[in-house]
Amino acid sequence: MSRTKNILSENNIRPKKRFGQNFLSNEQALESITQCANLSNSDCVLEIGSGIGNLSRLIAPLAGEVYALEKDRFLKNILNKELSAFKNTTIIISDVLKFNLKNIFSGKKIKIIGNLPYYITSPILLHLIEQKEYIDSICITVQKEVAKRITASPGKKDYGRLTCLLQYYTKAQLLEIFPRDFFIPRPEVDSALVKLEVLEKPSIKVKDEKMFFKVVKAIFLQRRKTLLNGLSNAGWKLEKNEIADILTSINIEPSVRGEQLTLSEIGKISDAIGNSI
Fold first, then answer.
1. Cα gap 272→249, rounded to integer Å
2. Same domain membership, residue 123 and residue 69
3. For the segment 143-158, what is each residue's pLDDT rounded down to a tens digit?
4. CATH code of the domain containing 244
């Protein structure tokens, strides 16, 4: 019987669907996540979804400070027991979506590690990006399809709004696929390990970030529409023919679809529209 099964059985724990609990039990996969973070004894780590401590126990000996964040208060006793030997580890029972990184920030940027619940992966990522000034990197396990969206390149069907947001602020890499058999209970889909390195400055330069993300939203809100049609429905104070003229003036074909545009091209569109309204 695996270590994970033993702990769950000994403590009469049944994974809770409402928390999206799928415990990563494969030791090689756990080691891969640890290696992804490239930890040193001066690092401050926030682990999202510490569960029963499978990953925490590998992180703690390598890092300076570890904050084990877990929403399920019924797992606190298990975490206390599993992590009792590590004096550098603090267990926090809290919802990550309500957690402010400023509370644990002491000057050195934080490394985020975690096995994210599938059902709230995007909200968690958005919550973290809003606090990017406190973050060095993010090493997370997510649903494979989400990982493909995060790391997609222009022209791919997975390329979209989430791609643009994350690749604007971070360098995103898909490192490894974790089969569903690596988890207890076994989910219906495979997972993937993704690393997001927060950039010192955004990957492209734009005049107005709010305008840039408004353009991104317009482009992908109805992704089957052409660029011209998508932008024409965004509520600008511009006629359709004026938008067409703007696109032509920056050498972008109005009939192209958003998924074919690079971040740089979307930035050019944002600046051009911003100059015209």
1. 9
2. yes
3. 999 999 999 999 999 9
4. 1.10.8.100
Distance CA 217, CA 162 (A): 10
24/98 same-domain check = yes
Same domain, 185 and 269: no
Q: Which domain holds residue 219?
A: 209-276
Three-state SS string across the chain, please? CCHHHHHHHHCCCCCCHHHCCCEECCHHHHHHHHHHHCCCCCCEEEEECCCCCCCHHHHCCCCCEEEEEECCHHHHHHHHHHCCCCCCEEEEECCHHHCCHHHCCCCCCEEEEEECCHHHHHHHHHHHHCCHHHEEEEEEEEEHHHHHHHCCCCCCCCCCHHHHHHHHHEEEEEEEEECHHHEECCCCCCEEEEEEEECCCCCCCCCCHHHHHHHHHHHHHCCCCEHHHHHHCCCCCCCHHHHHHHHHHCCCCCCCEHHHCCHHHHHHHHHHHHHHC
CA separation for the pair 191, 179 (Å, rounded): 6
Model confidence pLDDT, tens digit, residues 167-176:
999 999 999 9
Q: pTM for the complete prediction? A: 0.93
